[in-house]
Amino acid sequence: MTRILLSIAVMAVTTYLIRMLPFTFFRKKIKNRFVQNLLYYIPYAVLSAMTIPAIFYATKDLPSSIAGTVTAVILAFIGCPLIVVALAASAVAYLTMLLMPLL
Amino acid sequence: MHTFRKGLMQGIGIALGYLSVSFSFGILAVQSGLTVWQAVLISVTNLTSAGQVAGVGLIAAAAAPLELFLAELVINIRYALMSLALSQKTDSAFSFPHRLLASFGITDEIFAVASIQKEPLKPAFMYGITLIAFLGWTFGTWLGAAAGTLLPEKLTNALGIALYGMFLAIILPPARKSKGILAVVIFAAACSVLLKVTVKWMSGGFALIIASLAAAVFGAAVFPVDPEKTEVQE
Fold it and tell me: How many domains does chain B have?
C-alpha cells in the first residue's frame, strides 16, 4: 500500500517537474542542434517502443490483437482522428474474438 | 470569464477523446492489481497517457522508485519541449504562480490546441482547457476502473488495445510525412522487440528507456532536422 502510494508520488512529481521547470524558469531557446533533434525524435521513439511489441499482447489473444493492430495501422495511416483509431481497433478486436470460435 | 469559457469550449473535443482512452487506462490499472481509487489518484496527479500506462506496469512489477523516475523522465521528456515552446508564447498576465499552476496541464493534446492559438496565451484560457480535459480524464479512469470489471471479459480485453491504437494514430501520420520520424519509429520498434526477445531479465522500464534513447540518438545523428521547423511541428 505504502509502496504503491510512494510510486504514484514519484510518477506525479517527476511528470509535474518536467512540465513546470521549463515553462516557469526557462526563457531562452535551446541552441544545441543535437539536443533539439533528440527532443524532437524522443516522443515518436517512446510511443513506438511502447506500442511494439506490447500491442500484440494487448487483448490477451493473438488473432484479435493482430486484427486490431492492422485496423489501427490502416486508419492511422489515412489520418483518422485519435479517438476513431482507438475505438475502431477495439471494435475489430472484439468482433474477431467473437467470430474466431465460429471458424 | 470570456477567455476561460473559450478554453472550456476548445477543450471539449479533448475531454471526449480522453474519456474513452482513460476508460481503457482504468481497466488496465485494475487488471494490474491497483484499486479503483489508486487508479483515479494516478490520473488526478499525473494527467498523462503513456507515462501512466508505463507506471502501472512498473508498479505491478514492483519496480524501484529510481526505475519509475527514469521511465517517467524518458517517456515524458517531450513535455519539457512543449512547455518550453509554450513559455515563449505567454501573455504578460502569466505571473510566476500562474506558471506553476498552468504547467500541470501541458499534455500533447492541450499543447497542440494551445500552440495554434493566434493570440498570446492567457492563464484563464489554459485553466479552461485543462479543467475540462482533466475532468474527462479523471471521470473516464473512474468509470473504467469501477465498471470495467462489470463488462464481459472479452470486451474489456478488447478495450485494452484502444490506448495502443491511439499511440499509433499519434506517430503514423507524421511518420508518413517525414523520413526521419519513420526511421526512428521503425528503429525503436525493432529495438523494443529485440530487447523483449533477447534480454529477458531486463525490466520493461529500462528496455523502454534503452530502445527510445537509441532510436532518438539514431534519428538525431542520421536525420537531423531544421530546428526552426522543429519548433513549429512539435
Answer: 2
Annotate B59-123 with DSSP letters as a single string: HHTT--HHHHHHHHHHHHHHHHHHHHHHHTTB-TT--HHHHHHHGGG--HHHHHHHHT-SSPBPH
- B194 and B115 in a single domain? The answer is no
Distance from CA of A102 to the nearest CA of B (A): 15
Same domain (yes/no): B187, B143: no
- Which residues does chain A have within 8 Å of residue B100's beta carbon, measured at their own beta carbons? 20, 24
Give B88's contacts in chain A (Cβ within 8 Å). 27, 29
pLDDT, tens digit only, all 103 positions of chain A:
799 999 999 999 999 999 999 999 876 666 788 987 887 888 788 889 888 998 998 888 999 999 999 999 999 999 998 778 988 999 999 999 999 999 8
Q: B194 and B94: one domain?
A: no
Among A3, A6, A10, A73, the residue to mutate for chain B (most B Cβ within 10 A):
A10
pLDDT digits (tens, 9 = 90+) for B118-161: 889 999 999 999 999 999 999 999 999 998 778 788 887 888 78
Q: Which domain holds residue B106?
A: 2-170
C-alpha cell at A64: 484479435
Shared-domain flag, residues B99 and B192: no
Cis, peptide link before residue A53, omega less than 30° from 0: yes
Among the listed residues B221, B136, B232, the one whose alpha carbon sits nearest the alpha carbon of residue A83: B136
